[in-house]
Structures are given as structure tokens and as C-alpha cells.
Amino acid sequence: MNRKQLCVANLRYKRPSADEAKRMRNLLGYLTYRDSRDQGVKMVAGVERWTDHGMGGSVSEIARRCDDLRSQHVLAFSLVINPNPQLVAMIPAEQRERFVRELTERTVDDFFEARGLDTGCEYSYVLHHRYSEDPQTPGMHNPHCHVVLPGTVWTEEAGERIALYFSRNKKVNHIEMLHAVTEQNMVYMLDRYVGLDWEQRFDTLEAVRAQQLEVTEGVPHGYHINEDGRQIPFWGGARQVDEDSCAVGYYMPFEDEDGSVTIAFRPVAAGLDREYAQKLGSEVGQGLHEYPENQLVLYQETVKILLENEHDDIEPPQRNLSPSFDIDL
Question: From residue 138, how far is each of 131, 169, 234 by CA, in Å?
Fold first, then answer.
């Protein structure tokens, strides 16, 4: 496994201006009351959202501390610790929150120790339980933490607070140091929570997905006519979601933001047994050759109806096409 895929550690900062202070307070409110753009948080009386390590436990406290501890150029830093959802899926659901909290605290503490700041640094963080928006595996549990750091830090050597900075040059690269510390802690935590074979299990999962992708080496099962009138080939198939479940859907070329084209998977239904998902995608896909129009829609609807009817033999939805085909599952 590529160790850079273990966990995202993304750092940003706010400048000490009136506008940025207002944006910072708005950000704190957003992080407090929402888990994502579309998902609010159910507040529980007596339960604090923020875990306070010196920067406060509420929007007003943290905003005040950011202002009190700002530097000339930085109001505050915000850090996101986001472990790979594919790896989080290996951890029992009831242990995931503890895992992400411990990972966050170990990473922040170890990073400042690695920088030689023995006194550490104040911070507060909030845990979010959102779900992934990855179009290949949407809806995977994606817990992560947002950390707020001050613009200055106390040092015994200087006997005062000095500006907290993150250098990125040949002499010292604090961003690379942060990523290295994050990876080290992620490995240590996975060994404890999942077992020493977690990487082997992940590689096995990736090997299954690579094998499932091989369906795209054959003749396309059908074509989708896009808005420009171009024929886009697609292949019916399956993709392993995690170690316990598989999705049925289709593979199709998609253009990235940089203009490059990659064949990617789009699920129609998930939570299936691997053998059945692969057979369902293949059988429905191979039957499309008799129906030259609306092939992608026909594929999607046929898969859905087969599942809704408990996998019985049925005819696909009609679109004023030639005689239907039967699927023997």
C-alpha cells in the first residue's frame, strides 16, 4: 500500500484581519453544528462538541483564544486529520470514534515534540462523522477531526510566545514532518486496532478490485449517448466496497479536471455478496446487445428491479424496444 494514502493531514491558516476573524468565527460555528455541508449535528445537552487542549471548548472561547494568541501574520491554523475510509472500515464501528480521537491527539503532540517544542502547543478539536462522497464508493463512514491551533507558541528557550510557523524549504520542511508523523501514528494505531495484517488485507482488497476491473478489457456491454451526442462505452460489473460487501454497477471512462480520462466505477446498488454482484452485473450487461437504445438506463433499471424482486427471473423495463430478455440468476 502507498503509505501516503493512509491519512490526510491538511493545514491552512487565517490572517489576523477583521474579515478573516469574522470568517474564522463562522468556520468555528460551521464545524460545531454541522458534520458536512448537507448534514447537521444533533446536539446533546451536557456533551461538548469540542475537545479542549488549551484553545477552549466553545465557539466564543476558541475565537477569543485565537485573537489573544495570534501572531503578526497568523490569526490561527486549522488542521484536518482524515484517515482513509477504506482503512477505517476495517475497524469495528463502535471503536472508530476513539481511534480517530487518539490518532489526532497523538499526531498533534508528536509533531510538536518532533519540532523540539517540549512545552507542546495549545489546540482544540472537533470530531465529524460524515460519509464519503467518493463516486466509486459513496456513503462510506468517513470520521475525521478538525483541529484549531494558535498563531503563536510558548518556548522555554525564549521565555515568551513566538510566532508559530510551518517552513517548507530545503533546510526544514514542517509539512513533510507533519505528514511523516501522521503516517507513523496511523500505522501504529492500525496495528493496535486492526491487527498486524491490516496492510496485507488492504492489498488483498485492492487485488480483488483490480481483477473486477478486468471486465473493461473486453467488448463493451453497451454505450451511453452523452449531451454532446458522443457514444461512451460502459461495462456492467461489480466492485468490492470493503471486506464484507460488494457493489453492482458499471465501469465507464470519465474525464478528470485536468482533462485526463480514467475508467471508473459507478455503483447502482451495494451491500451485496461478491459472487452474486459479479454475476448480476455480467448477466444484465451481456443481455443489452439486443436493445440498442437507452442501454445505460436499461442496465440500471434492470439491476434495480432484479434486486427489488428478490433476484427472481424478470423481464427488463420496456423502452419501446424489441422483445425482452430473461435473466437466470
Answer: 7, 37, 20
